[in-house]
Amino acid sequence: MTLEEVEAYLLTLDGVRARRAGGRPAWYVDGLLVARADAPGTLLVRLGGTDRERLVSAHPETFGVPPRWEAHAKVQADLEGDAEAVRGALRLAWERQRSARA
To answer: What is the DSSP string of the chain?
Structure first.
């Protein structure tokens, strides 16, 4: 999966807007972060708690939590990993952010 494919998918979700954060592409809904480019070849997805644990357990080749993100509600996705799992995580992050504003 590429960042362009990530963007194309996210922009199909209601209310998602693209912008840059720290010079990197990022996607927000209602002003809340859904995902942003992280280290080369990776994507930071705004998910925490049991959602994050479930993704890392089910897809350890795709998702991880670098030490700097352990205390945050974020998971790192490897763009060379399971594209369907990445799309699922993005949709879940979008749903959580939309419900946070409801």
So the answer is: --HHHHHHHHTTSTTEEEEEETTEEEEEETTEEEEEE-STTEEEE---HHHHHHHHHH-TTTEE--GGGTTTT-EEEETTS-HHHHHHHHHHHHHHHHHHH-
